[in-house]
Amino acid sequence: MSDIKPTESTTKASAFKKLTAVKGMNDILPVESAKWEWLESKVRGLMAAYAYRNIRTPILEPTALFVRGLGEVTDIVEKEMYSFEDRLNGEALTLRPESTAGVVRAVVEHNMLYEGGKRLYYMGPMFRHERPQRGRYRQFHQIGAEVLGFQGPEIDAEVILLAHDLWKAIGLKDVRLELNSLGQPPERLAHRSALITHFEKHQEVLDEDAKRRLYSNPLRILDTKNPAMKAVVEAAPQLLDFLGPQSLAHFNALRQILDANGVKYTLNPRLVRGMDYYNLTVFEFITDQLGSQGTVCGGGRYDYLIEQVGGKPAPAVGWALGVERVLALLEEQGASLPDSVPDAYAIVPDVQSLPVVLSFLRQLRALGVKVQMHAGSGEGVGSMKSQFKKADGSGARFALIFGADELAQNTVSVKSLRDGDGAQRSESLQNLSAWALSLQSTT
Ligand code: ATP
Ligand code: MG
Questions:
Q1: Ligand 1 centre and the CA of 368: distance in Å?
Q2: Which residues form the pocket of ligand 1, taking CB atoms under 6 Å from any ligand atom?
Q3: Whole-number mean pLDDT of the chain?
């Protein structure tokens, strides 16, 4: 900004090279973060409505948690984790690439299921060493819901309805729900043999990843993003055909609830998700408006993870959404999201009045008005003209003019900065609450 005077040290040619953020990790600056805060507050409101409670787990976890929890032959564990040894004690640590495993660890560690099932949600940064591109970052943010301790399909339905209602609450359009069932371990085992047989017959079209996974984790091959393998993947045997009556009943009950609630979905028999911990229900909310980074939210049931992390076996289901992708999609759809601008900007022509003006501003803030105080740059407070320019630049809807004349009469002038005609009125400083609310914007 033009009126910021450089201090002595910044006028010297700097001997230091400019430092930048780590590649793939972004600063969220105020204009942007206002949208994040708006989204987060919508999420908090909806989570409260569904009686989900917040949980905050560490960003750093033992590497073993993810290796054991997510599965050794997964993209995340094989190549995307930021892992390192603690320099002081050699402990193997990893920046969390997702939060389900950490939530499960915490639930087990604190014996939270002792008194019954739990409905939880979290928000926070995740870390994956991926190739940065639009919608794919190395530090990104997820909001997630996890329900632990309940087995019935009505809970699968509840978490899906929760996500569905979130899209409604934030005005997100055109996300389609894709649904599949991965069945139970014995069903997957039978399917696995059939898959291996199928892919063995088509070795020549398999890429390196697929060949490597053929015998260790053939289900993963279905999750390929390689177009050259599309045909062979489409022709592969489908898990749905291997489901027994119980798995089918669970799946059908879930579908009935979704149907009854008017939630549309498509069955995608090739939907497998990126971690090994899922069984029965898996789902994704997908858009075509974000190129190849089109999955905005994914989840499913993970009835065996709690036991794998060392807890007493208990069922669970959940999802995670990508905050960057949800906001990018809203942007793409032309949604107008709130910015964090003040309601009013206080203009103070005379520096002597500042002490008393500040006390009025604090009273207005206590009444819920967002007020920005004018601050000079160097000597004095600047001319009225420059103060009005600042007021305009602040985005505030009103300027409050605390001139000497006004203060002498115990009033303040309230000038509209948005109306073309700049309507101005006088308000009493004796009774701020009578007019304070008229300054607040409704969004
Ligand atoms: P993708 O197939 O796009 O790699 P994923 O299956 O790895 O996604 P999950 O691990 O299920 O994704 O994470 C849930 C959500 O988190 C994704 O649907 C997406 O919205 C978001 N997400 C995952 N990885 C990233 C990333 N690197 N950058 C930004 N968002 C991400
Ligand atoms: Mg991924």
A1: 38
A2: 98, 128, 130, 135-137, 140, 142, 274, 293, 295-298, 320-322, 324-325
A3: 93
Ligand 1 atom closest to Cα of residue 294: 3
Could you confirm whether domain 30-183+243-332 is CATH 3.40.1280.10?
Answer: no
Determine the distance separating the centroid of ligand 1 and the alpha carbon of 29, expressed in angstroms.
Answer: 22
**For residue 122, what are its two tokens?**
């979290």
Positions of CATH 3.40.50.800 in the chain:
344-439
Residue 419 is predicted with a pLDDT of 76
**Gap from CA of 125 to ligand 1 centroid (Å):** 12
The per-residue pLDDT for range 398-426, each reduced to its tens digit, is 999 999 999 999 999 999 998 777 789 99
Q: Give the tens place of pLDDT for each residue, 62-71.
A: 999 999 999 9
Whether 200 has a pLDDT exceeding 70, the answer reads yes
- Read off the pLDDT of each residue in 37-54 and give the average, rounded to a whole number: 98
User: Which ligand has its closest atom nearest to the C-alpha of 284?
Assistant: 1
Averaged over 309-313, what is the pLDDT?
A: 95
Give, using CA atoms, the residue closest to atom 8 of ligand 1: 295
What is the distance in A from the centroid of ligand 2 to the CA of 256? 30
Locate tokens 């993209």: which residue? 75
Quote the ligand 1 centre to 136 CA distance (angstroms).
7
pLDDT at position 13 is: 60
> Which atom of ligand 1 lies closest to the CA of 97?
10
Question: Does 344-439 carry CATH code 3.40.50.800?
Answer: yes
> From the CA of 327, which ligand is nearest?
1
Residues of the chain with CATH 3.30.930.10: 30-183+243-332
Instruction: Give the pLDDT confidence score for residue 1 in this predicted structure.
Output: 43
Stretch 42-56: mean pLDDT: 98
What is the spatial distance between Cα 83 and Cα 62, in angstroms, rounded to a whole number? 9
